[in-house]
Amino acid sequence: MHPSAAATAAFLAPAVAVSNRLVPFRRARCFTVRSVASPPVPKPASSPSKTGKWQWTFEDKPVSVYYEEHAQESVENVKNILMIPTISDVSTVEEWRVVAKDIVKQKGEIGYRATIVDWPGLGYSDRPSLNYSADVMENFLVQLLNSPNSPVADSDGELVVVGGGHAATIAVRAAGKGLIRPSAIAAVAPTWAGPLPIVFGRGSDMETRYGLLRGTLRAPAIGWMMYNVLVSNEKSIQSQYKSHVYANPENVTPDIVESRYELTKRKGARYVPAAFLTGLLDPVQSREEFLQLFAKLDGDIPVLVVSTSNSPKRSKAEMEALKGAKGVTKFVEVPGALLPQEEYPLAVAEELYDFLQESYSSIR
């Protein structure tokens, strides 16, 4: 999500209307590029099998993190999937629900259990006033995968991490450092640059302005006022979804807008967006660094990159840079823009399911 052009101009300069995500991943030993032309599907109510709260501890402070589990009963040989939402102003587990449901209902020798976890400060998790950064989010992901009491603790060393946008890149970065050890990683419309830095750059003068905007958004009273202007209003949310989050504006329904608007009204909702918009959640600073993250996983962890046919120009360029890149095992394209898992969930689910089957077949 991006702030409105007029309001942001007061702090920065000209209008802003670009994507909030870019891309990452592995050398094409199994390199394929496939375009899937699939229509969007209705978003039915997808009730999880289980919901809960997990306590993440950061700087000695407990943070309650929401998660939900999707699984079929009486299924043997079950493998685990962790799905993490795209980091944005309106990030939510809801974006993965239809994908999770479609994957776990498939019949075969292998069954799947999908756990979707909200980021701290986003979705239905607690939103404390932390100094959020890419390192903080990486710390959360590392604890989530390694803690004995986490929702994915019983994965027996076989866990596929699926993420969108910045979430995917943070997972790849953590894996490259050896901090997590997933069986495979799937990156859906992955990104690395926040909305404002990708438009206005990272010069010292702009960093000063980002700091001013970030401080204003975090301030007690004026922060909510600015947040309401930039993010927390239905008109802005609808505009962003129609311009670059979804590929087809007709798929942006009033229900989606209302649901996302409600998320922006939760206590502490402005803290992570203040960091995201101004680039503090960016896991790297350049395309070269971005590609290097995936190169580190070459020959070690299988990586799927799911690009989209209608991404904004700058995001699309980063995705295209991953075709045949070192560390990218498989590259496919599906319909959509920056949130294909929500707009075209069955197309994304099909690619993920194929990748899961291939990944676990190679392990056995």
UniProtKB/TrEMBL annotation:
Superkingdom of this protein's organism: Eukaryota
Ranges for domain AB hydrolase-1: 112-350
Listed Pfam families: Abhydrolase_6 (PF12697)
Gene3D superfamilies registered for this protein in UniProt: alpha/beta hydrolase
Protein name: AB hydrolase-1 domain-containing protein
Organism: Brachypodium distachyon (Purple false brome)
Organismal lineage: Eukaryota, Viridiplantae, Streptophyta, Embryophyta, Tracheophyta
